[in-house]
Amino acid sequence: MPVDPICKMQVDEKTPFKSIYKNKEYYFCSENCKKKFDELDKSVIRVRRSLKDKEKISFGKLKREIIDPGICTLCGACVASCEVLTVAGGKPVLKGPCTACGVCYNQCPRTITTESSLIGNVRDVFTAKTMLPEVKGQDGGVVTSMLLYALEEGLIDSAVVTVKSEEEPWWPMPIIAQSREDILRSAGSIYVHSMTMETLMSAIKKGSRSIGFVGPSCNIDAVNKMQNSPYGLLHMFMRANILKLGLFCMDTFDYKGLKQFLEEKGIPLPTIREMKIRKGKFQVKADVEHIFPLSDLDVHRNGSCTVCTDLTAEKSDLSFGGVGSKEGYSTVLARTGLGLELFQDAADRGYIKIEPLERHDLEKVLHQAKAKKVQMYMIKKRIEKGKGL
Ligand SMILES: Cc1cc2nc3c(=O)[nH]c(=O)nc-3n(C[C@H](O)[C@H](O)[C@H](O)COP(=O)(O)OP(=O)(O)OC[C@H]3O[C@@H](n4cnc5c(N)ncnc54)[C@H](O)[C@@H]3O)c2cc1C
Ligand code: SF4
Ligand code: SF4
Ligand code: SF4
């Protein structure tokens, strides 16, 4: 005897209360149970309508991002939400034409579909550039200008920044900057891990009480853990306020590997004026400009970066990156009240020029952030290709 799927009572097949869902007939004890069951279909239709005006998302996307990389948990949420989906060969598959309504993608627990899960909490987004001609930054020179503002306004007494070593060209050397000159020479990006935490501890030990700290997400996370974990060196950090300036970050490379790569291309490190990663290209400015596909450097990419999922340094006060802004500008995400206030004050005092970041430019940030979030899922593929971690 069939069972009413709502109240679980056994019901006679001759009951007048019946519904068909995904080609299967269901039987109910009453109009009330039938109504509850039919509501389910209505909610799928409602979700379909609300997604209709957004980007078309087909089952192919779910297949590409979740099913093919082998991270589908076979929870069945996608199958439950669409009549053209079923399970075959141990995975969700199409059994009819897909209308690209996006419902299955939005139900899957493994997809990332909200902005905050891609870039963390953000109060406001900007594109900005320095107003100080002496600042020669990587993008808009905004990080350097923010530090100059904070130091000159007496808001910080030092900054932990990374400069290029004088002995080993392009080797990242973290320093405690307490002068305009030291902050100015820290401008620019070095695509090698910088061991900033020891320098931060030294700054505190030497008596700094308000410190501007710059680093990518892995460095910002280290600061937060040392501040907040029960086993962190809290007693040290209680003596200092730390303004966290996070850098967007996709990759760093092994120093020796990077050096060897460039030397093999006939570009010794001392001749290089600037390195930049943009749109999947590695740009190197020496006597002339050289451009390589970023994938040429895959083999030298640090293993830790392959499993890192935070592009935008989500736990900072302010985050800075190139993606989303035009040449000569930095994208800025203001996350905390303190970050937003200082950023706007730096603009009011003439250190930087700020403009709101347009929606389509923020989409570029979200796109890169997504690529970073899902790279964990690609590990299996990388191992299969023999690239390892
Ligand atoms: C390793 C790395 C990877 C990056 N990847 C991306 C990316 O994929 N997409 C993107 O949009 N942006 C990326 N960025 C951020 C971007 O390169 C700029 O740092 C950012 O746009 C700010 O530019 P700016 O001109 O305002 O900074 P600037 O005024 O030039 O200041 C740069 C600051 O970065 C610090 N710094 C430089 N190298 C390091 C390092 N290795 N570790 C810690 N601090 C360092 C310096 O101390 C300085 O304070 C990356 C940065 C780094 C360091
Ligand atoms: S819910 Fe169905 S129709 Fe909609 S995208 Fe997924 S498979 Fe295609
Ligand atoms: S909803 Fe996602 S995790 Fe669940 S079965 Fe479908 S693809 Fe797999
Ligand atoms: S990719 Fe992640 S782990 Fe690698 S340097 Fe950047 S923030 Fe750190």
Could you describe the 3D structure shown?
- The structure is a single chain.
- The chain is α+β, with helices and mostly antiparallel strands and 389 residues long.
- It folds into 3 domains: 1-53; 54-111, 2-Layer Sandwich (Alpha-Beta Plaits), CATH 3.30.70; 118-252 and 301-384, no CATH class.
- The protein is built from 15 helices and 15 strands.
- The strands form 4 sheets. An 8-stranded mixed sheet has the order 7-6-8-9-13-14-5-15, with helices on both faces.
- It is elongated and about 90 Å long.
- The relative contact order is 0.12.
- The model has no long low-confidence stretch (mean pLDDT 91).
- The chain binds flavin-adenine dinucleotide and iron/sulfur cluster (3 copies).
- Residues 58-59, 81-82, 84-85, 98-104 line the site of one iron/sulfur cluster.
